[in-house]
Specification:
Elements (H helix, E strand, L loop, with lengths): L1 E8 L5 H12 L4 E10 L2 E4 L7 E3 L3 E11 L2 E10 L4 E6 L5 E12 L2 E7 L6 E7 H4 L7
Antiparallel strand pairs: 1-8, 2-5, 2-8, 3-4, 3-7, 5-6, 6-7, 9-10
């Protein structure tokens, strides 16, 4: 079963840290981004294959935000357009600060838990998901 949480972040809020704190306060097992609209200044990303952050200084519009959220951690990707319309995307990092607003619609997957564990094949912390309802023998609607 999915429930929906709607949240508005305000100017000065850190997008990633706000989602991490929300997940911990709620002791969330598993959630995900359904929709996100807003602006950032600056935007902080980690691009594919890079270890250092990329900073998009100045005003930017959030075009996409997707990923998973739990009390155990988040894995979020975003794309932003700068004032010239140039689009950059990558991993959302802390330090991405809401400029005017951030309207979030989040789905909460009840019965599920997402953790991150080192995968020996990739060397990265990867998602491990468990459905606790299935583990307990619960049935969904017929």
């Amino acid at each position: 079963m999915m429930t929906v949480h709607i949240e508005r972040l305000r100017p000065g809020d850190d997008l990633r840290r706000s989602l991490e704190h929300w997940a911990k306060r709620q002791d969330l097992g598993a959630a995900f981004v359904l929709s996100a609209v807003g602006s950032l200044s600056p935007a902080m990303l980690r691009l594919a294959g890079r270890n250092t952050p990329t900073v998009i200084d100045g005003d930017s519009e959030l075009l996409t935000l997707s990923g998973t959220i739990s009390a155990h951690g988040v894995h979020l990707h975003m794309s932003v357009a700068d004032a010239h319309g140039q689009v950059t995307g990558g991993h959302l990092l802390a330090g991405s600060i809401v400029r005017t607003t951030m309207e979030l619609v989040l789905g909460i997957a009840s019965g599920w838990e997402i953790r991150r564990e080192i995968d020996p094949l990739t060397g990265y912390e990867e998602m491990v998901a468990e459905n606790h309802d299935e583990l307990l023998g619960a049935r969904g609607p017929d």
